[in-house]
From TrEMBL:
It comes from Galbitalea soli. Keywords: Glycosyltransferase, Transferase. The lineage of its organism: Bacteria, Bacillati, Actinomycetota, Actinomycetes, Micrococcales. This is Glycosyltransferase family 1 protein. Residues 416-427 have a biased composition (Basic and acidic residues). Gene3D superfamilies: Glycogen Phosphorylase B. SUPFAM superfamilies: UDP-Glycosyltransferase/glycogen phosphorylase.
Length: 436
């Protein structure tokens, strides 16, 4: 059997998709990843083959920096970072405007390349990133069965009266003005209409007999796989998804890191893991406030600073583990709590280890994800731009002291996710489909 994985050239997307593929690899089957060159080393580290496929202008092998992006993409990235400093609604509006050009880059060219890869390989199963719209366009136009993987919060696939880019829920501490929300909703509706027109134009060029889409953001594959715990989803929303499987999480295996192993062995005191991911680690000002709050709380930390200038972080307490990149899965395995931007990998990997969170969401589906964690009692969510030192410290201490029913449920959730990993759920779901 041959599995084809289609991923944008971004580590944060490829890592969970490649982890799903390990179930096929371990069964002795062939796994091929179609992606760009920036993540070639990641593909190789999993023991997979790679075929070249460029789905976007930008790339990210692990930590993204604007100056390393192609001309035009660098300015777009700086614009996004600037928007996060102005506020949450401004960030969402910036992202909505950007979707008019960045979610389907050269869609017909990319789609035809995808179709050529499929024709050459004739894979038995295809797994594709939900946000790889040009690739999914190719599969829809070619009537090629595939599994569509939503790597973010489930609201990345809008249902009912939702619209892509407009959070269906906000954490309690986030109180945007209604006028701002109305303007954001109107913008997201316009973007959805424009994006659907772009999708349909490309679809009809690829297949003149195709039926145009009512809403391109609501398009989905034959099988929907959600890299998210069902326990955090609402039954009412899940009922609108059609055929789907909640994978829970796609937690990757990491190579042994001698420095990390020695740090863990040197002191068994509780610690907090801190990471703002490959993009938002650039917000060194927010990281600096978190670091001061942790230091004043008297708890040690492991901090993945990413692209943040180290000088911006201030004085770092002795005995902390601080590096540009850290093995997140390894450190979450023993962390007492974590501070995160609320990205899907961070959230699902923390839930798998039963680690409570302080979430400082900046953009996209991070708000809805933070709201779900907060409602379950597994997190405290705060606005990253305005959270004070005292609020951060109180949130960290609350999560370190989490007990009672919330602690019991979080522990049970982690146990469930570890006992039935997402890769096994995905493998079983695709194997169960007719013709497999």
């Amino acid at each position: 059997m041959t599995l084809l994985i289609i991923s944008p050239d971004y580590a944060s997307h490829l890592l969970p998709l490649a982890t799903l593929g390990t179930a096929w690899r371990d069964a002795g089957e062939r796994v091929i990843v179609a992606t760009g060159p920036a993540t070639a080393d990641i593909v190789a580290s999993f023991g997979f083959e790679r075929m070249h496929l460029q789905l976007g202008k930008g790339s990210n092998p692990g930590v993204i920096r604007a100056e390393e992006q192609p001309k035009g993409e660098d300015d777009a990235l700086r614009g996004f970072f600037d928007a996060t400093r102005r506020g949450m609604v401004e960030t969402l509006a910036f992202q909505a405007e950007a979707r008019l050009s960045d979610l389907m880059w050269e869609p017909v060219r990319a789609a035809r390349e995808v179709q050529a890869i499929v024709a050459e390989l004739r894979p038995d199963a295809i797994i594709v990133d939900h946000l790889a719209f040009s690739a999914r366009l190719a599969l829809v136009a070619g009537r090629i069965p595939h599994a569509d993987v939503v790597l973010g919060h489930p609201s990345a696939l809008p249902v009912g009266d939702e619209v892509y880019g407009y959070p269906p829920a906000w954490p309690a501490a986030f109180t945007p003005e209604q006028s701002e929300l109305d303007a954001l909703r109107a913008l997201c509706d316009r973007v959805s209409d424009s994006f659907t027109a772009e999708w349909n134009a490309a679809l009809l060029e690829l297949d003149p007999a195709a039926t145009p889409s009512r809403s391109a953001f609501e398009e989905r594959g034959d099988l929907l796989l959600l890299n998210y715990p069902a326990e955090l989803a609402t039954p009412q929303r899940s009922a609108l998804l059609g055929e789907h499987v909640y994978l829970g999480s796609a937690v990757r295996e990491e190579p042994v890191d001698d420095e990390v192993r020695e740090w863990l062995a040197a002191d068994d005191a509780p610690y907090v893991y801190v990471s703002f991911g490959s993009f938002l680690s650039v917000r060194g000002d927010v990281q600096a406030r978190v670091i001061r709050a942790l230091a004043d709380a008297g708890v040690r930390a492991a901090v993945a600073i990413g692209s943040a200038p180290r000088a911006e972080l201030g004085e770092l307490p002795e005995g902390w583990l601080v590096r540009e990149f850290l093995p997140q899965v390894t450190l979450l395995g023993r962390a007492a709590a974590a501070v995160t931007h609320g990205g899907n990998n961070s959230v699902t990997e923390a839930m798998t280890q039963g680690v409570p969170l302080v979430v400082l969401p900046f953009s996209t589906d991070q708000f809805a994800g933070a709201a779900a964690l907060e409602a379950a009692g597994y997190a405290v969510a705060l606005p990253p731009n305005t959270a004070t030192h005292d609020e951060l410290r109180a949130a960290i201490e609350a999560m370190l002291a989490l007990d009672g029913d919330a602690r019991e449920r979080l522990t049970a959730l982690g146990r469930s996710l570890r006992e039935e990993p997402g890769r096994e759920r995905a493998h079983s779901a695709l194997r169960a489909r007719p013709g497999r």
